[in-house]
Design brief:
Layout lengths: L1 E10 L2 E11 L4 E5 L6 H8 L7 E6 L2 E2 L10 E4 L11 H12 L6 H7 L15 H12 L6 E5 L7 H16 L3 E5 L3 H7 L2 E6 L2 E7 H5 L5 E6 L5 H10 L5 E3 L2 E5 L5 H14 L4 E7 L3 H9 L5
Parallel strand pairs: 3-8, 3-9, 6-7, 7-8
Antiparallel strand pairs: 1-2, 1-4, 4-5, 9-10, 11-13, 11-14, 12-13
Helix pairs in contact: 4-5, 5-6
The protein binds adenosine-5'-triphosphate.
Pfam family, one: ABC_tran
Family: Belongs to the ABC transporter superfamily.
Keywords: ATP-binding, Nucleotide-binding, Transport
Amino acid sequence: MLTTHNLTKRYGGRTAVDGLTMELPRGVVAGFIGPNGAGKTTTMAMLLGLVRPTAGEGTVLGRSLSHPERYVSRVGALLEGPALWPSLTGHENLQVLARLGGHDPRRVPEVLRLVGLADRGGDRFGTYSLGMKQRLGIAAALLGEPELLILDEPTNGLDPAGMSDMRDLISRLAAEDRSVLVSSHLLGELEQVCDWLLIIEQGRLAYAGPAGEFATRSGAELVLFPAEQADLERLATVVANEGLAAERAGDHLVVPLGERDPRLAAATVNRAAANAGLLLAELRIDRPTLESTYLRMIEGEPA
Ligand SMILES: Nc1ncnc2c1ncn2[C@@H]1O[C@H](COP(=O)(O)OP(=O)(O)OP(=O)(O)O)[C@@H](O)[C@H]1O
């Protein structure tokens, strides 16, 4: 679907993308993550043939990056907020874009329906909410029935309802056997829609692979609050006797579980505490999220 090999972009002395080698399988929703300035937009622009790589190579839909004209008609993109005509309706905007792009204008009602704007297509673009504008931008990107969709921060500035609509839309689009590459800083949002992750830092690849495997790289933890503060030390000893290491964190203990089954470990610790006459006010399993694992990774801790 998409590969890059040593893809590099330098602007003067600054390296924006630094020897990026990665692969994106067909049919996935891939989250593209990295700190501000990591090179996500530059990478997307190179994939779309908008920015010429300084070095390296790659393929999109089986065609070389050095000939974007051979594949761009099969790729849809939303890079910055869509710049459409405010005084035209959503429907009219798409008709103009279809004609300009050489696409069939009869697809307009279908793409409006896909993005959930079927009943607002007759309203002027200028009256749309930000979320509706973003979705119309995606409708425009869908006019050419793309096999790959590239979305740069499509949830930027959206309110929670707008984000939820965007999430549903991305899932719907992927269900139609289309690959989606979507960048965002909202990791909780990405976690809900992505099955693949590409993480870059300072232009270099930090992780590429299934989303599920990334979040489980750092194991779950048990969090234990004794009913009596004074029991904290004894509780730590009880936990240690079960072969687990307890770390004291203020008024509670944190127990990294590594490879151990979290629920089994919780039950074991619960029983051991009860047998020692210790009452637990709270016993909780904290499972790693995309965000917690990512933050650990960029802060340099072993994930
Ligand atoms: N046209 C340009 N000329 C010079 N430097 C640029 C240009 N475009 C990007 N850069 C630089 O390249 C680096 C990567 O920028 P890029 O926009 O690709 O990062 P990003 O990961 O998309 O960041 P953000 O999350 O903030 O959008 C940054 O240091 C940026 O300043």
